[in-house]
Amino acid sequence: MKNEPPPAPAPEGDAEAELREIDRALARIDAERARLLARRSELVAQLWGRRSRASAASGGPGSTLPRPVDRREAGAPTVRNVLLTLGGILLAVAVIAFTVLSWGRMGIGGRAAVLGVLTVCALAVPVPLLRRRLGATAEVIACLGLLLLVLDAYALHRVALPGVDGTAYAAIVSAVLAVVWAGYSRLLSQLVSPPGAGNSSPASSGAVSVSTGGAPGGGVPGRALPDGGGRVPRLIPALAVLPAQLPLLLWSIAVEADAFGSGAALLATAALDAVIALRFAQPAIRRTAAVLGTLAGAAGLIPAVWMSVTAWDVAEAARGALLLCGAAVVLWSVAPRLPASGATATPPGTATDARPVTGTGPGAAPGTVPSSTPSRSPAPGTANATPGTAKGAGPVTGTASGPVAGRSPALVSLALRSHRGPRAILLSPAVPDAVAGLAVVTAAGGLLRVALPAGFAVAGYLLCAVLLPYAVSAVGHRAPERAVERGTAVAAGVVHALALLWVLPDTASALLGPLGWVDAVWEGAPRGARAAVAPGVLWSGGAVVPVVLAMLAVSVCAASRLRAGRPGTAADAGAATAPASVPGTATATWPGHGAASAGALVLAAAAAAVLPVTLDLLYPVAVLLLTAQAAVLLVAAGTSGPVVVSRTALACAVAVAGTAAAWSLAERPVTQGALAALVVAFTVAAVTSPADDRVRQPVTACAAVASAVGLVVALCAGAGFPAHHTAFAVLAAAAAVELLAARLRKRPVGLPLEVTGAVTGLLAVGLAIAGPAAVLAAVLALAGVVAAGCALRADRHRTAGYAATALFVLATWVRLGSAGVEAPEAYTLPVTVPALVVGLLRRRADATALSWVAYGPGLSVTLLPSLAAVWADSGWTRPLLLGLAALGLTLLGARARLQAPLLLGGGVLALVALHELAPYLVQMADALPRWVPPALAGLLLLGAGATYEQRLRDARRLRELLGRMR
501 near 594, Cβ under 8 Å? Predict the structure, then answer.
């Protein structure tokens, strides 16, 4: 075996960089190994398929004798474990029943003597079993021995110490059992060790030995003691952790401790588990201690948090804070000893390869393992090993240096490998750091809650969360890859999110409540802003709402600026998930700077919008302040550098303006003044915006138009004009907007202004509906004139032309209906005939012109009003004449293959026929039995289903035929 001298240690300042390079290199090695294994499996499958086909073609044995199939669903180790577990459970039940219940006429003393003999036998039997490589059986017997020790203690209490308090006695017995079992495990490892083998105590320094198969050898270096499954028992030393959980908790129960005592006992137990998990190298001990410590710590934090959040005086809050700070200290002590994010530290004694490695090679250094496969490359994780460290497939241990130097003995030898997933997240140092940060925030916030005025507890907790990352950074904690900073940033972010959720309902009610005045226009508002937020609703928020929003805005803005302006590493750029990130851990080009600034702007705008309601200012003053805030936000949108900040300011301005406009509807003078101010603000913003801006100028221009239209409506209503008269003013505004849009059609603002003008025109029509029909007809005709003017533009010729035609036709129908005309044909036929002549001339001049453009308007002018008259007429003359005309149009359209005559004539003919048959259909429905309609419907469905394919082909042919028509 060739030994190489260790490489020179890296400088202290480059330790973290070297550790990251090792992690990246190991990740690449693992990815390449996975790729090669996958390719190997594919090649093996291909070769096996070729061999099988060749054997079948040659008539060899492979073609006649099938391979035996292993139909066993459970392996031998599984069956062994199940049998041993069931046997151990049955023996445990029998022993408990024997001790607690009865055994004939034998008293408790006799039972205690028998139990003592059984205990000695149970504790002595594992030694020969381990030497015979029956490790699983030895584990079961050892577990039974631990149970017998517990029963011995019970018998001793019943026989010799009946007057001693049971809880206190159980606490003492638990401590004694933990110590006794730890000593027994150590003695057992020494008894089964071969002569001359050293003892790998968890506290030993220097090189730490490695066992096979990923399991520790119970502290036995250089020799594996496999049981039937080839592994060393791991459960025996881990059982000592179980009774160690009970002494402090049982003692607190015995002395009737309060919540502080119980929490202190649980947290102290969790601290003891943390020490065990970091001190001992065996994975079973580490995992058991970690799980039990986590449970004990979580149970201990519950009374501590309860004491902190429910304390009424400083003394009670200080007691809860003491427990929380103690838990934070323990967590911060544990975090630096966990593996860095992206790599998992394999503790000493854990193999990274399934190939067994046993024995000690000649010339090897103490505590090292020789290679069983010299031809293979060095195993991952052998960097900075001591001389004599093996190279090969097995795990290699040694004295670690560089980034891991100075860690606990359990992490002295690191086998770093890439690891992702939930387990890596849970084992990350950021997790205990985050919990510790939350504990500190809860402790400090509980103290501030007692000192602050009522209702400001959330602000106190938020202040602690804001200062937490900076305080931790000032103290100087530095875990691998700044895990402490990330963990505390996560804790601060959680508190920030909870504070935002706390004030969100009150903020939403203050900003959205004014929308209720839409249904109570000009009914008058109370003097105070709190009572005027919504009709008949009193705002229930407090002064803490704007304070918390302002604190959140300041925290986010400060953290963003500090992170964007201080040097750092690229890996740290994504570390801060909280608003209050730690200074000194950022990059100069942090991509989240703009988003953080935008979030701070939203929070600041919300705080400013809620402030008038919080101060309960006069209603007109509150609306005026909101309008002024909208103007300030428009200025910010025009002067902000980053695009995301500018867009956010614009969105906030529109939202605040909408709230102000809705809130102003309570009183007429306030409505007119607020809308006039908004018109000026949005107009100035639109005029000063760049012409090529595709967002700011269109949004501000449309908002200015909406505010102007609202102002026109308010002025007309204030002057006493009815709604149908106001429609003419609104229509004039729509015409002005369309003219402006036509002038600015080459700019991005042109199309949004045109759409806004169209919506304004629809508003005018809606206002005119409530008035006389003659006024509605006039408004429709004027709207048609505006649309016809828009149709003069080449790019709007078709769309605006259709709209103008529809508006003119509607105006005509409304006017005829208002005049009481009973024979609309006298007015429609003089229009239809020239329209059809014009359409015919156009078709002759342009053969590609559609029939809907040439004949559709002329036919619709007569057919549709006549159809409406037919349904209102009880005679037979008009239906007959209209039906004949529709039939002729249908036949003409089918002959000439024109869509407009065919579809219009066919549709009118079908409706006329339905009108004539409707009375008979009603009589038939009354005369038929009730089961006939469902039966007919069923037969119709069956017929449709039976001929579905043919109907699809017919429909496809009809669609193609209509498509070929002009």
Answer: no
> Rounded to an integer, what is the distance from CA 819 to the centroid of its chain?
63
Sign of CA dihedral 523, 527, 533, 537: negative
Least Cα distance to 423 among 343, 331, 483 occurs for: 343
Q: Return the structure tokens found at 647.
A: 């867009």
What are phi and psi for residue 534, nearest 5 degrees? -145, 155
pLDDT in tens, 519-531: 888 888 788 888 8
679's tokens: 């018109």
Bin 287: left if φ > 0, else alpha if -120 < ψ < 50, else beta: alpha
DSSP bridge partners of 528:
618
* Calpha distance 489→578 (Å, rounded): 5
Sign of CA dihedral 324, 330, 336, 342: negative
Quick check: 765 and 806 in contact, CB under 8 A? Answer: no
For 344, the 3-state DSSP assignment is strand
Distance CA 258, CA 735 (A): 79
DSSP 345: E
Predicted pLDDT at 659: 93
CA distances (Å), 9 to each of 18, 339, 395, 482, in order? Answer: 10, 20, 22, 22
* DSSP annotation string for 161-178: -TTS-HHHHHHHHHHHHH
Query: 528 — phi, psi (to 5°)?
Result: -85, 150
Lookup: tokens for 747: 């700019």
Instruction: Single out the residue of 749, 766, 646 nearest to residue 704, CA to CA.
Output: 749
Query: Which DSSP symbol is given to 416?
Result: E
CA 260 to CA 254: how far, in whole Å? 14
Burial of 578: CB neighbours in 10 Å, binned 0-12, 13-18, 19+: buried
What is the pLDDT, as a whole number, of residue 673? 93
Tokens 């502080």 found at: 260
The amino acid sitting at 673 is G
Is the backbone of residue 381 left (phi > 0), alpha (psi -120 to 50) or beta? Answer: left
Burial 707-741 (b: 16+ CB within 10 A, else e): bbbbbbbbbbbeeeeebbebbbbbbebbbebbebb
Strand (E) or helix (H) holding 336: none
Instruction: Report the DSSP beta bridge partners of residue 418.
Output: 343
- pLDDT for 271 beyond 60: yes
Does the pTM surpass 0.85? The reply is no
pLDDT (0 to 100) of residue 95: 66
